[in-house]
């Protein structure tokens, strides 16, 4: 994961340059898509090089799933082009499909087949015969060997999601897109799944991950793009994104926040406020304001900025910029 290539991003965002001659695994150029009056994608440019572990993050409705659907050939862009390892997803769709495996966000399965039959049928879609050895390996790594002959409808939600991962991998695609792969999955499976995915990445597979578990993206991804309202609003290495906001975060449980500190509230969750600090010395100012206004402290903790805090700040800045553009 040591590669730090760049991509095409909005004005003002300067990711590191892509190494010369590095082949692209996924490329999107000015991709736009509307659904009626809703603009799902507003000219997305993205370039992911071979072998990257790449994160694609954004709030619900940002356009992540629409972009994935275009790459997978499930939806056509209104404008722009998309390629998988140089194969246009429309003009050269057969080769583009063969190079790509997608783990969808929704649980989609056929209730009439066993786990092994499901993977064998998926192999057949790609014209693969005598694929049993690889299917056995997938079952082993996804801890599905004991369920190989179980009917799909008898599996738990977490088990079904494991099978979806297996289906995406059964034709050994060099590019793998994981759309919320650990949603509803227990901690033990999550660890074993990421161990398997890391191995695939070390073996040369390109991984693109969307997740709402930002700690996963922070730990796994070498480079991250953030989408909001169908636009790329940040694109850089994970390390560079984390250093963009070098401050601290205070987690404060209290009935309210002092009026002078309201602008520093990053988010609020059921009586707990998350406030941004630029330096440790600012903490004394917060404590003084709490004493002055007679606000009792239920709990207070100080933590370094993580990807979640960076994400929230970037989304807030993007929302403010969009509001200014709309009123200009």
Oligomeric composition of the shown chains? single chain
Low-confidence stretches: 1-19
Quick one: overall form? globular
Strand content: 25-35%
The CATH class name of the domain at 24-99 and 173-241 reads: Alpha Beta
Q: Rg from C-alpha positions? A: 22 Å
**How many β strands by DSSP?**
14
User: Whole-Å distance between the termini?
Assistant: 42 Å
Mean pLDDT: 87
Note the total helix count: 10
Gross CATH architecture of the domain at 24-99 and 173-241: 3-Layer(aba) Sandwich
User: What pattern of helices and strands is seen along the backbone?
Assistant: EEEHEEHEHHHEHEHEEHEEEHEH
Structural class: alpha/beta
The percent of residues in helical segments reads: 25-40%
> What is the topology, as strand order, of the major beta sheet?
6-7-8-3-9-10
Task: Could you tell me the CATH topology label of the domain at 24-99 and 173-241.
Answer: Rossmann fold
């Amino acid at each position: 994961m040591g590669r730090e290539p760049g991509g095409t991003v909005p004005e003002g965002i300067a990711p590191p340059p892509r190494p010369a001659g590095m082949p692209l695994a996924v490329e999107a150029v000015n991709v736009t898509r509307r659904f009626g009056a809703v603009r799902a994608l507003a000219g997305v440019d993205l370039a992911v090089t071979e072998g990257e572990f790449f994160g694609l993050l954004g709030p619900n409705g940002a356009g992540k799933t629409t972009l994935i659907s275009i790459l997978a050939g499930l939806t056509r862009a209104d404008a722009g082009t998309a390629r998988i390892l140089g194969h246009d997803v429309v003009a050269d769709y057969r080769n583009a499909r063969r190079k790509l495996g997608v783990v969808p966000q929704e649980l989609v399965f056929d209730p009439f087949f066993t786990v092994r039959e499901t993977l064998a049928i998926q192999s057949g879609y790609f014209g693969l015969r005598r694929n049993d050895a690889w299917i056995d390996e997938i079952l082993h790594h996804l801890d599905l060997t004991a369920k190989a002959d179980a009917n799909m409808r008898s599996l738990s939600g977490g088990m079904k999601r494991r099978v979806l991962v297996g289906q995406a991998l059964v034709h050994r695609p060099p590019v793998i897109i994981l759309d919320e792969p650990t949603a509803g999955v227990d901690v033990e499976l999550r660890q074993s799944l990421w161990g398997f995915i890391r191995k695939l990445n070390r073996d040369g597979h390109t991984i693109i991950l969307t997740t709402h578990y930002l700690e996963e993206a922070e730990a796994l991804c070498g480079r991250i793009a953030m989408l909001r309202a169908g636009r790329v609003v940040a694109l850089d290495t994970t390390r560079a994104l984390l250093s963009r906001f070098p401050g601290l975060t205070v987690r404060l449980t209290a009935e309210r926040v002092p009026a002078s500190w309201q602008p520093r509230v990053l988010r609020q969750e059921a009586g707990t406020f998350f406030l941004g600090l630029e330096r440790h010395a600012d903490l004394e100012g917060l404590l003084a304001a709490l004493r002055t206004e007679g606000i009792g402290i239920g709990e207070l903790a100080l933590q370094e900025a993580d990807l979640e805090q960076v994400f929230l700040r970037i989304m807030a800045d993007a929302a403010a910029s969009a509001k200014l553009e709309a009123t200009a």
